[in-house]
């Protein structure tokens, strides 16, 4: 029985004579435990992409932070912080209803392998653990079920960019995005949002 493929995948593999290749790749490439190389990719990443879905609401999010913001916490487990956002909770809301997620780690250097992960996510609201990570509002823990390194074909080689100016600082503060200062948003920000009032709201960068 395949860990990676469902009936829809199989139907297309058979239609286009791809089942043999697909089976070989699953057998040779799929893993269910992190290798040291996997951990190095994950913990050096300044971003990843997160896919989630629930009740027909499919979402793909960019998650960014300083290198090390995603941590491998076990042989097949990782955690990442949920930073200040737009209060829509698209990813976390999906996770609350359907914990199955996909993660994609990649470098835009044209040569590094992509790392695809599948797993089941859960929200962590332990105040002590959250307080230990600058800027974290919550933590998301992922029990990883499938690890699949993927070739770098089609990935462009981009110039190295500077880190986002909106990343949390070591003291946990952040520059406010421009949209939080808009008159239809600022009064209705969550009560604990540090950008709801005070000088921080003026410190937006665009």
What does this 3D model show about the protein?
It is a single chain. The protein has a 7-stranded antiparallel sheet with strand order 2-1-5-6-7-4-3. It has 5 helices and 7 strands, in the order αααββββαββαβ. It starts with 6 loop residues before the first helix and ends in a 56-residue tail after the last strand. It folds into 2 domains: 32-150, Electron Transport, Fmn-binding Protein, Chain A (Pnp Oxidase, Chain A, Roll); 175-206, no CATH class. The protein has 206 residues and is of the alpha+beta class.
Low-confidence stretches: 199-206
The CATH class of the largest domain, by name, is: Mainly Beta
Q: Would you tell me the overall average pLDDT?
A: 91
Assign the CATH architecture of the largest domain.
Roll
Beta fraction = 25-35%
What are the secondary-structure elements, in order, as H or E? HHHEEEEHEEHE
How many individual domains?
2
How many strand segments? Answer: 7
Which overall shape is indicated by the principal axes computed on the Cα atoms? globular
Note the gap between the termini. Answer: 51 Å
Strand order of the largest sheet: 2-1-5-6-7-4-3
* Main sheet overview: 7 strands, antiparallel
CATH superfamily of the largest domain: Electron Transport, Fmn-binding Protein, Chain A
Structural classification = alpha+beta
CATH fold label of the largest domain = Pnp Oxidase, Chain A
Overall radius of gyration: 19 Å
Residues in helices, as a percent range? 10-25%
Q: Total number of helical segments?
A: 5
């Amino acid at each position: 029985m395949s860990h990676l493929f469902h009936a829809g995948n199989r139907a297309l593999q058979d239609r286009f004579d791809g089942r043999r290749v697909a089976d070989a790749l699953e057998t040779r490439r799929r893993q269910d435990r992190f290798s040291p190389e996997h951990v190095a990719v994950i913990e050096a990443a300044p971003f990843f992409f997160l896919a989630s879905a629930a009740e027909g609401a499919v979402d793909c999010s960019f998650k960014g932070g300083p290198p090390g913001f995603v941590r491998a916490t076990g042989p097949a487990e990782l955690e990442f912080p949920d930073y200040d956002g737009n209060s829509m909770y698209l990813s976390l809301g999906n996770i609350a209803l359907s914990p199955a997620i996909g993660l994609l780690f990649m470098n835009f250097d044209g040569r590094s392998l992509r790392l695809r992960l599948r797993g089941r996510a859960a929200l962590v609201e332990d105040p002590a653990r959250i307080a230990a990570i600058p800027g974290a509002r919550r933590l998301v823990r992922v029990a990883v079920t499938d690890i699949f390194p993927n070739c770098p074909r089609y990935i462009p080689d981009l110039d190295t960019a500077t880190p986002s100016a909106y990343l949390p600082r070591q003291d946990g503060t952040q520059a406010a995005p421009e949209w939080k200062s808009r008159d239809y948003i600022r009064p209705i920000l969550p009560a604990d949002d540090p950008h709801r009032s005070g000088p921080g709201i003026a410190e937006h960068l665009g």
